[in-house]
Amino acid sequence: MTEALDWRTVYDFWFPIELDGADTATHWRMLTWWMRGGASAELGPLAPILDAARSGHLDNWADNPWGRLSLIIVLDQFTRGLLAGTPEAYASDPEALRLAEEGLRNGHYDALGSNWEKFFFLLPTAHAEGPDHLERLDRIVAISETALEEAPAHLRPIYEFSLSQARGHRGVIGRFGRFPHRNALLGRESTPEELAYLEKGDYVYNRQPPQG
C-alpha cells in the first residue's frame, strides 16, 4: 500500500496554488490557512500518510528535494495538526530535523525554487528541541533577515511577521533552553521562571499574523 503513496499528494495539498507572482491578498490567504488551523482542519483523509511516514515507509521520498520537503511537512506539520494535545505531536521532531539538516548539506534545500518551500523545509530546525537549538535558531533568524531584505515591497509585512516569529522563538530558547508550553504534555516539571512565563500565556506560536 505504501508504494502507492506519492509525495505529490502532500505537496499539492500543502501548496495548492502557485504563490510566485500572486497578489498580496493571495499570500495573506495562504498564510492564514497555514497558521490559523485551516490546513490542520483538512488533514483527516491524509492521516494514513502520517502513519506511513512515522513507520519509515516513506523514506524514499527524501531521494529528491520536493519529496524530502513533503516528508518534512508530514513529520513536522501533520503531526501537530493530527496529534495535537498529545506527546506524539512532537515525537517526530528529531527525524524531521535530521531530514532538514541532511537536505541543507546535500543541496536539496538550495534546489527548491520558492521562499515558502524553503520556509517549511527549515521549520524543523526551529521546532526541534536539543542542545544546538539556539545555534539553529540564530541561523533561522539570519535567513529570515536576508529574506526580508530581498522581499518585494508588497510582501514585506509577511516577511516582517516571519522574522518576528523567528526572533520570538529564539528569545524563548535563549531564556529557557526549551519550549515551556510543552512541559506539562511531556511530563516535565516547570521551573518558577517558566511558570511565570506560562501564566502570562504570550506564546510565540499563538501570535497571529496581521491582516493583509
Short description:
The protein has 212 residues and is mostly helical. It has helices at 7-14, 24-35, 38-41, 47-54, 65-82, 93-106, 108-111, 115-127, 133-150, 156-176, 192-200. The chain folds into two domains: 1-128, no CATH class; 131-212, Serine Threonine Protein Phosphatase 5, Tetratricopeptide repeat (Alpha Horseshoe), CATH 1.25.40.
Structure, described:
With 212 residues, the chain is mainly alpha-helical. 61% of the residues lie in helices and 0% in strands. It has two domains: 128 residues, no CATH class; 82 residues, Serine Threonine Protein Phosphatase 5, Tetratricopeptide repeat, CATH 1.25.40. Helix 4 crosses helix 5, helix 5 packs antiparallel against helix 6 and helix 9 runs antiparallel to helix 10. It is globular, with a radius of gyration of 17 Å.
Question: How would you summarize the topology of this molecule?
Answer:
Layout: H1 7-14, H2 24-35, H3 38-41, H4 47-54, H5 65-82, H6 93-106, H7 108-111, H8 115-127, H9 133-150, H10 156-176, H11 192-200
Helix pairs in contact: 1-5, 4-5, 5-6, 5-8, 6-8, 8-9, 9-10
